[in-house]
Amino acid sequence: MMQSELLPPTWPSFNFTCSTLNHNTPYVQETDFCGVDDNDFSYSFASPEESSVISSNSYIATMLPDNFFDLEDLDDEIQIMSSGAIEEICEWINGDGNEGSPSSQLTMEGDEWSPCPSFESNQNSSVFPLTDASLLLQGDDMEVDGQLTLLHLLRAYGEAMENGEKELSEVIVKSINEKSSPLGSTTERVAYNLFQSRENQGEYLREESHKNLATAFRVLYQSLPNGRIAHFTANYAILESMPNDAATIQIVDFNIGEGIQWPPLIEALSRKKKAMRLTSIRSEGEPTSSCWNFEDTKKLLLAHANQYGVKLQIEEKSIEDFGSDLRMKGRGEWLVFNCMVGLPHMGRRRSRKSVEEFLRVAKELLPDYRGIVILGDGEAKESLNHCCGYASYFDNLLRHYKAIFESLERNFPAYLAEARTAMESLFLAPFMCPVAWLQDWEEMTKSCDPGTEMKLKARKLSLDSLDEAKQMISGETSYNIKIEGTRVHEMVLQWKETPIVRVSTWM
């Protein structure tokens, strides 16, 4: 297969005019996802005749404007976020001429909400527990000391939880909360989103930020390569593995969300004259996401497939029902089990148990059907061999999310710190739950690496896909992509040597 047939290594350009977001407003048929039309597509798989670095038309390209990384234009975009109670948040960014000033105070006057923890009117309460200005004049030494203290407290919390010292852990959390802030240093923001983002203040920020989810989504997906690298690697593996005699490919998607992974694949299948059946797995026993509406995503993907002449069928089932129905039909389409979890743009944490159930069904079905299993792990979890206890596991996750926060911060100037805070609240905070981390750890100790447990055959990732992925982050010196040692089936995206995404393939 020629390298140029696959997803080009360009950073996608998008033009986001609407979305599948559920904001309690009726779906308007005339307004497709991200303004889909005949002239507004890019980020597609190139034909053999096309250059591997192109900017052609694509559905996914409708998510961000062509001049997105012009920060002045980004500033203009964020001004559009203003609506209702979100107006004060916009003022933090562009409001009264004091760039970077987060000192606006929101109080409750009648129907006006105060984001202070009590949600009560308080003329002296600020939006966030900011450091007193006089303390800032004492220089950087105090800040460094404070961050070191906070790091020690976070590690102490992990050790206390490992030893079952609940009362001690609660005392430590109180000390952490006194030193954390959603507008502080990277460590302070990580600590805040771990322990305070679910309290009154954090809930208020998330509710207000949610009103601008479409804007935040497009900024995050473009700012961080995590999701784009995972989707690219998965789609590349699908096209490389797909047999020539397969008239239809059956994709079983663990977490379809807004469906942003599939338009480039649809375009590639149109050139190969293949049909596609897409099954979205319904969550069972888990809170459903309110961000994305399946029916809207279905309509938009169908419209995109129709534009490219691809026969596409989309359905939603539980993983158990899918397995039962497939066994009744017997051998048929070539199967793809696609499991993307923990990628920042998803903004939704899925339990390890649900992931293992999805992969268990894949293990049971693949021996009787041709196909491939893809796991994109946005938390880049390492095996238990690298963690001697929960404290070590907790520390690894802290390091992981610190890297994510740092990489997002790199893309924002200081005066857009509040916009970044809104995205952290919407998309990163839902993944940062110490209770869920402990549950995952306990489940991990009862099982092992998914591929080993299921005894699936590792599928080697090609050097061509690695080279293309590297071009996607060319010029970004803090990022690195590699295939590690003997794990030839796994591609790892790193931020300053810290793994932030792992994509693995089995067959």
Question: Can you characterise this structure?
Answer:
- Strand 6 (479-483) and strand 7 form a beta hairpin.
- The protein is of the alpha/beta class.
- It contains 18 helices and eight strands.
- The protein starts with 70 loop residues before the first helix and ends with a strand.
- It has helices spanning 71-79, 87-94, 133-136, 140-162, 166-179, 186-195, 200-210, 213-223, 226-241, 263-272, 294-307, 319-329, 352-365, 390-410, 417-428, 434-444, 450-454, 463-472, and strands spanning 248-253, 275-281, 312-317, 334-341, 371-377, 479-483, 490-495, 498-506.
- Strands 3-2-1-4-5-8-7-6 form an eight-stranded mixed β-sheet, sandwiched between helices.
- Helix-strand topology string: HHHHHHHHHEHEHEHEHEHHHHHEEE
The fraction of residues assigned to DSSP E strands is 5-15%
- Gap from first CA to last CA: 19 Å
Contiguous runs where pLDDT drops below 50 for at least 5 residues: 1-138
Strand order of the largest sheet: 3-2-1-4-5-8-7-6
- Tally the beta strands: 8
Q: What does the radius of gyration come to?
A: 23 Å
Backbone shape:
globular
User: What structural category do the secondary elements indicate?
Assistant: alpha/beta
Average pLDDT for all residues: 74
Largest sheet: 8 strands, mixed
**In percent, how helical is the residue content?**
40-55%
Number of helices: 18
